[in-house]
Amino acid sequence: MANQEKTGGRPDLLVTAFEQIAEHGWSRLSLVAVARQAGVSPAEVYRELPGRAAVLRALSRRIDEAMLAFDEAELAGLPPRDRAFELMMRRLEALVPFRPGLERLVRGARCDPCLVLLTACRLDRSLAWLQDAAGVRRFGLRARIARRALGAAYLQTIRVWLTDESTDLGQTMAELDKQLRRVQSVAGLRPPPAGRAPREESPQPA
């Protein structure tokens, strides 16, 4: 995988870290090796990625920002399911440079409960933003249940995305559409009947 560069010519340290994960696995990730590969000092890596957990935190933030960097006009008038589809596809497209490392992470997570916990907590926060951006008006327990449904759809789609080498991610889009249709009722993505406005729920602590 080609190492992407940030402004100023410095290699993208997050991409470099995932290249190291792809080659050596999560448990053997060395941030000093990341510095060596990027041609920078360990201190520079430390400022951006002070630990392994920071690598996952930085990826989550970058992908969330990619998901949310949309012009509202692009999604205006779309029903919640279609908005959720567009937002999830923005995430998956932004993840493409990290795919080999993520594939290695997925394999490693099967025997690393801590890694599963780290990623699950961040995914729940990301899905809360997705709910809000998609116009899902659910609160409290119903919102949490909806996020679980969205998370299940997303993770199932990731399985297809990991092996989808097409330039347009056609297989991924088909799988995501199928999964969102499957969970649309539980996830609050079903559009209201024609002529009826969505029913507002009383907010409860999420």
Q: Any idea of the CATH class of the domain at 52-183?
A: Mainly Alpha
Radius of gyration: 18 Å
- Overall mean pLDDT score? 87
Poorly predicted ranges: 197-206
Order of helices and strands: HHHHHHHHHH
The CATH topology name of the domain at 52-183 reads Tetracycline Repressor, domain 2
Strand % is: under 5%
Shape: elongated
Can you give the helix content as a percent range? 55-70%
Quick one: biggest sheet?
Answer: none
Distance N terminus to C terminus?
A: 40 Å
- In total, the number of strands is 0
Count helical runs.
10
The CATH architecture term of the domain at 52-183 is: Orthogonal Bundle
Oligomeric form: single chain
Given the helix and strand composition, which structural class is it? mainly alpha
Describe the structure.
There is one protein chain. By secondary structure, the protein is mostly helical. It has a domain at 52-183: Tetracycline Repressor, domain 2. 65% of the residues lie in helices and 0% in strands. The protein has 10 helices and no strands. It has helices at 13-24, 31-38, 42-48, 52-68, 72-75, 80-95, 99-109, 113-134, 140-161, 170-183. The protein starts with 12 loop residues before the first helix and ends in a 23-residue tail after the last helix.
